[in-house]
Specification:
Blueprint (H helix, E strand, L loop, with lengths): L8 H4 L14 E5 L5 E3 L1 H7 L3 E9 L3 E9 L2 H8 L8 H4 L2 E7 L4 E5 H4 L9 E3 L1 E2 L2 E2 L6 E3 L13 E8 L7
Parallel strand pairs: 1-11
Antiparallel strand pairs: 1-2, 3-4, 4-8, 5-6, 5-11, 7-10, 8-9
The protein binds the ligand Nc1nc2c(c(=O)[nH]1)N[C@H]1C(S)=C(S)[C@@H](COP(=O)(O)O)O[C@H]1N2 and molybdenum atom.
């Protein structure tokens, strides 16, 4: 985007960009979707029903961690973004992947089937608060109550990218 001729820095910033210098950090939902979105933690709190989770996960370096989280279901947020599959066909849904990336580049892959009510039905959250503390400044955190390990509890989420897996060889 050209900034030539724009009067102020604020006016030159795309409101949908994931990290506006003048606003709260945003989570960019992109990829094979009908409705890509750039959401703040306030959006996650205001637009979807909030769920509560009390979890214990194990960290290889720090041992067991106990936390409470509040936030919308990842499934609810992603369904509103409209993954580009035929929702009536379970086999179509079973081919889709989500890559969740934190501000430090740490990322992990989920399958759509893990959160789909017809498959794994895992109640993963996009946290808006941790231990009662709002996450507006640092960004949302992925909550995976069914994971024993903490590695997919990705903090300061900046992106969720939706894709379908490549056609396997030998079919
Ligand atoms: N963005 C980001 N999120 C992350 C990680 C990371 O390196 N970057 N580490 C994960 C790991 S290994 C654990 S155990 C949990 C909890 O880590 P903490 O106790 O250091 O917060 O965060 C997870 N989320
Ligand atoms: Mo960890």
């Amino acid at each position: 985007m050209s900034r030539i001729g724009t009067p102020t820095r604020t006016a030159a910033v795309d409101p949908a960009s994931p990290d506006r210098p003048d606003g709260p950090c945003r989570l960019l939902i992109s990829g094979r979707l009908l409705r890509p979105a750039a959401l703040t933690v306030a959006d996650l709190r205001d637009r979807w029903e909030q769920h509560h989770a009390e979890v214990i996960f194990d960290c290889a370096t720090n041992g067991p961690q106990h936390h409470t989280f509040d936030g919308p279901l990842l499934r609810d947020v992603m369904e509103d973004a409209g993954p580009a599959f035929d929702a009536r066909r379970r086999k179509d849904r079973a081919r889709f992947l989500l890559t969740v990336t934190g501000g430090d580049g740490h990322h992990a892959v989920l399958s759509w089937a893990e959160i789909d009510a017809d498959f794994g039905n895992a109640p993963m959250l996009l946290a808006t608060a941790m231990d009662g503390r709002p996450l507006d400044a640092e960004g949302s955190q992925l909550v995976v109550p069914s994971d024993r390990c903490g590695a997919r509890y990705i903090s300061a989420i900046r992106g969720i990218r939706v894709g379908s897996c490549e056609e396997p060889d030998g079919r």
